[in-house]
Amino acid sequence: MANLKDIRRRIKSVNNTAQITKAMQMVAAAKMKKAQDQALAGREYADKLNLVLTNLKSNMEGLAHPYLEVREEGKHLVLVISTDKGLCGGINTNLLKKVRLEVTDEADYSTVGKKLREQLIKADKTIVEDFTLEDPISFDEVKPIAKHLADQYLNGTYNKVSVSFTNFVSTLVQEPHVSQLLPVDPSKLAEKRDYEGVGKDAVNETDTAAALEKEYSFEPDAKSVLNALLPQYITFQVYQMVVEARASEHSARMVAMKAATDNADDLAKDLKLEYNKLRQAAITAELLEITTAMKALE
Amino acid sequence: MIKLNIVTPEKKVFSGDVADVYLPTETGEIGVLETHTAMVTPLVPGELRYAMEGKVYPLAIGSGFAEVDQESITVLTDMAVTADEIDETKAEKQKNEALKALENLDHVEDAEEIAHLQATIGRSTAQLKIKRG
Fold first, then answer.
1. Is A88 marked active-site?
2. Less Cβ crowding at N or C end of chain A, within 10 Å?
3. What's the number of CA atoms in the CB half-sphere (13 Å) around residue A182?
4. Into which CATH architecture does domain A2-25+256-297 fall?
């Protein structure tokens, strides 16, 4: 029975696929947990940094810093954070769509992650750099990237630096984002952003109010504090975005792989049903033949 | 007693009540005791010390800043390691490699690289100093 054999072969192959996707799902789940914890660990740092910046902002009138300077000349640089590996649902596609939508001017691109770099090359965009990051990400790895972006801005090559990444909202929801890194917009400086930690937390009004009430003295003065703080703020922003993107990647992959496993299981079930039906039919046909033969001999 | 929090982007390194804290700043070391006036100051790579139950604990920290108010001090830094966690040979190696790399660089062209190396040297020197007491 060629047909039965075919179905048996298909069942086997579907089961194999299910096994692989199941394994990938578990790996992604473990990595997701780590990446989410990492994004959470940055929370405390973000909160404190925000508190100080909020306070500093009110003292910042008349303070100048190259990072705050809005310039006319120069190009736009976009850092696109995608994934190195595929099989992670639509997060790369969605991010690319978002970038196409938001970045309308002639921009240069830097990339983290292979997937969108390939896409951007195909779309004839100028890629100036490509960075690779380990998994899990360490803060030390991100520092040179942030420094490089800031330097490119400072030396006048670019007048605006943006970062596009996938923001982690929950295991099931990830949002593509394009946000401006440089120049730092003072009005947004101390604003609590939802990618500063896992999930969306309401802005804690009382905290912000309390922060503003504190009368800090800045040692040695507000200007040097700002000078020391802004580069750290930039580095931390980049770090947090990369960590968010990583958490999104693993979550999306886990969800995609879970869907694939479920699909494969469904398919295997259907195939098994069909196989059993065919097997029954074959037995019935055989019995019928034997009985007919017996009847004929009687 | 004053509450000390040491936080890096990756984790919370220390949180607890301490008697006093010494911080490395641009203008030299400063000591912070209870009821210190509210203050924000940048930190440079070096040695942070705090006293708890009569013992002094040193930590190697990277650059960052400290936020001080009446009851608490929060130290935000990109690196914070205790003496136990410091790998002496690794720190030594990092320092030597950075020093060697620094010699071969052109001071005008590679300003960026030099700044990076100097930061590495600062961090590894701080670690070595703490490890060797």
1. yes
2. C
3. 33
4. Orthogonal Bundle (1.10)
Domains of chain A by residue range: 2-25+256-297, 28-252
Question: Is B67 within 8 Å of A148 when comparing Cβ atoms?
Answer: no
Q: Which one of B30, B64, B74 has the shortest CB-CB distance to A232?
A: B64
pLDDT confidence of residue A266: 96
Buried b (16+ CB within 10 A) or exposed e, A55-80: bbbebbeebebebbeeeeeeebbbbb
The active-site residue, picked from A14, A53, A80, A88, is A88
- pLDDT tens figures, B10-40: 888 889 999 999 999 988 899 998 888 888 8
pTM, 2 dp: 0.82
Q: Is B67 on the interface with A (CB under 8 A)?
A: yes
pLDDT digits (tens, 9 = 90+) for B85-95: 777 788 888 88
Q: Which residues of A touch B9 (CB under 8 A)?
A: 41-42, 45, 139, 236, 239-240
C-alpha–C-alpha distance, residues A141 and A166, integer Å: 19
Chosen CATH of A28-252 out of 3.40.50.10800, 3.30.470.30, 3.40.1380.10, 2.40.30.10: 3.40.1380.10
Taking an 8 Å cut-off on Cβ atoms, the answer to whether B67 and A218 are in contact is: no
**How high is the pLDDT of residue A201?**
47
Whether A225 and B65 lie within 8 Å, measured CB to CB: yes
Length of chain A measured in residues: 298
Q: Which helix (H) or strand (E) holds A92?
A: helix A91-102
Range of the domain at B103: 87-132
Query: CB–CB of B14/B5 below 8 Å?
Result: yes
**Model pLDDT for residues B101-116, shown as the tens digit of each residue:** 888 776 666 666 777 7
Asked whether residue A277 carries a pLDDT value surpassing 50, the answer given is yes
Is B26 near chain A, with CB under 8 Å? yes
